[in-house]
Structure to design on (487 residues):
């Protein structure tokens, strides 16, 4: 276990120089205080969890002090936002404080979000509010606990600093961690500004640090692109299988590592709705739940365009063609598991589609349906779930197919079935209304609810006695919350 001043830094991105990032110091928050910290994320840095409660922790991550070895930098990038190219973006309110190695030799970027203005702030104030910082913290750690690759969050620091959004709110900072903060938009920036030398330096950097095994391949850059395509297909399959809607899949929010990145008006589905749009400024539904699949490919093709100086167009196209089949195979595999199936049959895709259509028509809770499907034998479970459906004849027809399919799958006890299904079907997910309750309490100075919710979501598959209220469908007020995009 380390104390805060014992972290080891090796700031490899900062060393790439001023063409890639700009030195900027964090702008401190007034009266910084710990809102919540993640022990699991602390462990990634070998930090003793007790240090989170010390005043120096809030001062560090509230922008007051810095390690001597930290080199805070704002990164430059660009990206396609809602389909249109924005030539210059960058860390407008976040700073890469430095890169830390843990005892296992893993390397983590420490990125402080809400740290004040930078050369890339454009019209923004460089701040993040408590509300959005709590949402990012909870989502990062909850996704990780579900087994969905994501950036991590070490802590949220609250403050008295006033910040104006639709109304006056309080500023906060969230300390985000990832093995890299490089986005698709980094490559696009150097491609569209016609800086081939810097682009090559960036590509070498990503290849050496994050895809070293691709060096062994005849065409290392092509192998790296292929790996990025594969990781994105797997990631988006997980989002779709678990009902996660990102909301702002701009290419500047897509990680080069294929992890969930940059949280805004995201949501987990309550009722299943393929057309769900969580971002209320997304009037055309570009980033609706079901569109995440083709948008994943669109984003990869934007990255491919930026890689044309290194890889032939034919090879890029061929590799892009892997995305959809890979996505489908991954998605179907996850859905089979969610349905308790251990074997594969040709018609399984249809079985899933029919179920989702029925759930859509009846507004069935996506998470609880699968959890309850595993509570008992297939026959008993479908008999109990039947009441949730409006189209009873439709559900009965599906239930017959499902029971027959389960029978063909193999012989196992109810207990085996429950164990297997509960291990992949969470009981607790980050519903918007749960986040909202925690935020409302935190805004009035009570951080206990954020901390409790974080605890519950860190073990989403196990039943937690006394926590039944976190495993409920939303109350009426919590069903269609409009999550502000101004974060
Ligand atoms: P986002 O929609 O959060 O992914 O941000 C898009 C771009 O706007 C990024 O370059 C951000 O750094 C920048 N940005 C977002 N909010 C702010 C803010 N409050 N101040 C400065 N820049 C911001
Ligand atoms: Mg962003």
């Amino acid at each position: 276990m380390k104390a805060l001043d014992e972290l080891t830094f090796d700031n490899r991105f900062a060393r790439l120089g001023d063409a890639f990032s700009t030195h900027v110091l964090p702008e401190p928050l007034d009266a910084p205080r710990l809102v919540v910290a993640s022990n699991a994320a602390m462990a990634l840095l070998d930090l003793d969890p007790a240090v989170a409660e010390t005043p120096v922790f809030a001062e560090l991550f509230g922008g007051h002090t810095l390690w001597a070895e930290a080199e805070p930098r704002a990164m430059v990038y660009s990206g396609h936002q809602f389909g249109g190219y924005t030539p210059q973006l960058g860390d407008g309110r976040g700073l890469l404080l430095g890169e830390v190695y843990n005892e296992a030799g893993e390397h983590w970027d420490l990125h402080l979000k809400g740290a004040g203005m930078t050369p890339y702030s454009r019209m923004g104030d460089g701040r993040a509010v408590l509300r959005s910082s709590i949402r990012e913290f909870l989502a990062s750690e909850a996704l990780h606990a579900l087994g969905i690759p994501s950036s991590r969050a070490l802590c949220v620091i609250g403050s008295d600093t006033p910040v104006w959004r639709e109304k006056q709110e309080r500023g906060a900072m969230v300390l985000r961690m990832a093995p890299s903060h490089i986005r698709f938009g980094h490559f696009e920036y150097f491609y569209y500004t016609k800086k081939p030398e810097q682009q090559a330096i960036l590509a070498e950097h990503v290849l050496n640090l994050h895809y070293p095994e691709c060096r062994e391949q005849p065409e290392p850059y092509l192998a790296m692109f292929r790996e990025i395509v594969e990781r994105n297909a797997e990631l988006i399959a997980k989002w779709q299988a678990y009902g996660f809607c990102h909301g702002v899949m701009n290419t500047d929010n897509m990680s080069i590592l294929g992890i969930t990145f940059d949280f805004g008006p995201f949501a987990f589905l309550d009722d299943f709705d393929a057309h769900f749009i969580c971002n209320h400024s997304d009037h055309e539904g570009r980033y609706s739940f079901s569109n995440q699949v083709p948008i994943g490919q669109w984003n990869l093709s934007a990255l491919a365009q930026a890689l044309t100086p290194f890889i032939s167009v034919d090879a890029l196209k061929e590799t892009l063609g892997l995305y959809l089949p890979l996505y489908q195979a991954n998605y179907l595999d996850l859905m089979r598991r969610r349905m308790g199936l251990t074997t594969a049959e040709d018609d399984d895709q249809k079985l899933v589609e029919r179920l989702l259509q029925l759930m859509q028509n009846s507004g069935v809770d996506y998470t609880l349906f699968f959890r309850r499907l595993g509570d008992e034998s297939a026959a008993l479970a479908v008999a109990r779930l039947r009441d949730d459906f409006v189209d009873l004849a439709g559900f009965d027809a599906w239930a017959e197919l499902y029971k027959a399919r389960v029978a063909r799958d193999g012989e196992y006890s109810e207990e085996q079935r429950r164990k297997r299904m509960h291990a992949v079907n969470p009981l607790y997910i980050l519903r918007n209304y749960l986040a909202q309750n925690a935020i409302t309490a935190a805004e009035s100075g009570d951080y206990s609810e954020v901390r409790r919710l974080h605890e519950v979501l860190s073990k989403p598959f196990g039943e937690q006695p006394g926590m039944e209220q976190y495993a409920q469908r939303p109350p009426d007020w919590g069903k269609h919350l409009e999550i502000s995009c101004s974060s």
The mean pLDDT is 97.
